[in-house]
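Today's session is about reading a structure prediction critically. Students often jump straight to the picture, but the first step is always the sequence itself: look for stretches that repeat, for charged clusters, for runs of hydrophobic residues. Only then move on to the predicted structure, which in these notes is written as discrete structure tokens rather than atom positions. Here is the chain we will use throughout the hour.
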Amino acid sequence: MKLLVMTDTHIRGTTPSRRLDDFKETLLDKLKEVGEIAHNEGVDYILHGGDLFDRPDTAPSVVSDFIKVLKDYPVPIYIVAGNHDLYGHNPETLPRTMLGILVASGIVSPLSIEPIFLEEQGVSLQLTGRDFDYDIDAKGSDAYNVSKDESVDYAIHLVHGMLLDKPFFENGYTLIEDVKTEADITIAGHYHLGFGVKTFNRKYFLNPGALVRSSADIKEVKRKPKVAIINLGEEIEIKLMPLKRAKAGKEVLDREAIEEEKYREKKLIDFVREVKASDDFKVLSMQEILNKVANNKDLAEEVTKEALARLAQAQEKLGKGGE
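Below is the predicted structure for this chain, in token form.
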């Protein structure tokens, strides 16, 4: 059995300020190449690690162009919802999003903790997934933990969470070494730079990196977008395949814009430091409000859920789904 893995496509109709090309046309070309790889490699299924869209209310005129490409894929597509696919990062809003429309139309199939069982060429697979939510990388989260059915040869778990091979942030991530799972392969999206293929306790962990590059990070300039091919036979084989038609980062990312952004970030850090020192006022973005509510352990669970639900409704009405 063969599977192709891609993640974080962030479909949108506009071009990010740091890109030099036509972002939409470049992404359409990348996704066409993914379909060609799936055909040439003879894969049986495609797995998408979430953030198919850059915002939950992507314009229908944009979505229709990408639907034509996805419908031409030779095999079924299984997916989990990323934070950009949802209003307020709330999985319950999925039916009202563009990803929800693709699910309802059968273009992609959603994964959940309830396993899907697949079999090809005498190999049986248990496939599960976990959409993004605010508890996904919280301490004690079971988002990455899966029990494997005794009847299957392999178990794969797909998660849109901040799974890392080493810490880069103060919090809000899960380390591979802390994952206790029976899944043979755990696949993560969300972290755009990816970490490739890692093994720990005789289990595989995979993140091929985002299919798009929109960050001002110099690492993005050097990174080549990839997909992964998983071959399940007597053993597990995983290979990373760079997209041949993806241009070099320096050709599509504006280096001058990157330097300007670094300067702005430094000025912002200095400004925030001064504000914290004065402690006179504080301005919170919607993202920060959501984070603070979700991570406030002093609130009762029902209060937190209600607050997040109302914030998601407000975000949806304001049309700020992906910002």
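Discussion point for the tutorial: The chain has two domains: 2-249, 254-318.
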